Amino acid sequence: MKKILIVIAILAVHIMMPSGVMAENDGFGAGVVSIVKKVGSFIDTMAIKGLDTRYIEAPQRPWQIILRGNINQSDLKLSATTAHAEEILFFMKDEMTWEPRIKTDPATYVGFWAGYRGYGFGYSWNVGGDKGRILTFGATGGSYGVNLRIHWFDNDEPEFFVKGTGLKDITDDDVLIYEPFEFNDTLKLGSPIRTRALFLDGYYLFNKKCSYAAAYDQSVIQKRSAGSLMAGAMYFHSTTKYDDDINADLIMLMNDIGVIKTWQVSAGAGYIYNWVPVKGLLISAMAMPMLTFYNHIKCWRYDSNLKDEVDNGGWLEFLEMEDKDYRIREAKENPVASENSKIRLNFDARLSITYEWNSRLFINAFGQFSNFQYKTDKMKGRLNDWYINASIGVRL
User: Fold this and answer.
1) Structure confidence by residue, pLDDT tens digits, 185-220
2) Pick from 105, 107, 132: which is nearest to 197 by CA?
3) Phi and psi dihedrals of 169, rounded to 5?
4) How far apart are the C-alpha atoms of 319 and 331, rounded to whole Å?
5) CA–CA distance, 5 with 248 (Å, rounded to integer)
6) CA distances from 204 to 63, 97, 210, 238 (A)
7) What percentage of residues in the chain have a pLDDT greater than 70?
8) Helix, strand or coil for residue 314?
9) Strand, coil or helix: what is 89?
10) Per-residue pLDDT, 348
11) Max Cα–Cα distance, the chain, nearest Å
12) Terminal-residue alpha carbon distance, the chain
């Protein structure tokens, strides 16, 4: 990624500063110009290297400036099962399942993307929804594409689902009557659940008549319809945190877990088809199942004064305690736990529509859906993430 940024910086200097000005600087400018030209020539070559030029064309203008609007939604569901619920809640018994679900409202972003022949970066600001932000980097060449997306978001009103066996009644002779129940509601948190998700993916196309770049960053133009088998890999990392004093009750119900970090590496194969029904219009669809062969989870556990009251049987104090008086602390036993989850199947799908008026102006809309899952003995989770970009761009 550092190399990509250096390339962009050098090329930016080249496009904004006349070469004559550089050359005046006692040979230093001439050296910079020479390096810039070599880097630019290398990228120009990589843009169409090995491709069938009857199907794919590199625009004469190499720079792209794109204004983007983005709608996205993240759906994170955590699940914790407690074998002896009575140890936490006196009116429960046996097994209890607790599932907070952080399903954000569809969020709206606006931002930009700028690059040179598919090498560039973008940034988008939230204007409604999940109070988040998105940073993207991209590098595409003749038969490959590499993309990095980082999404930050938080939510202080997650949905939740609880299932277990609870106290229904007490008879006149003090016999406790329990029955199974399920319950859904929205939970108002004093401090939000914060999530950061990083997605890094790369693809390689085997058919030289089909271009990934034409559909997803418009650095080349697909002139005729073609499809291709493709190989891909993805790295996913997420951090979910709600380790705040005021969330002591949520932490206790989540088996004392207050921070969850996951690392996943997946690889797979799929298919992409670029359809050009008329000149200037490109419709592209891609689907790729991926096998997650590395799935590592790390959890941070916490005790609290709220849990102390429960453990000591102080239910009256528990019920009277206000959340502003909650205090969490690092758990005495196993404060940090790491383990590997089983091999799982994830899925990645994309759809893109591009229309070009001429070699300079274009509009594009594309969407992506990703699914990630992880599981330990004490909890499990899954993240569904989708987004739709609509953009208008110009080549310079």
Assistant:
1) 787 888 888 888 899 999 999 999 999 888 888 888
2) 132
3) -160, 165
4) 22
5) 42
6) 23, 42, 11, 25
7) 81
8) coil
9) coil
10) 82
11) 101
12) 24
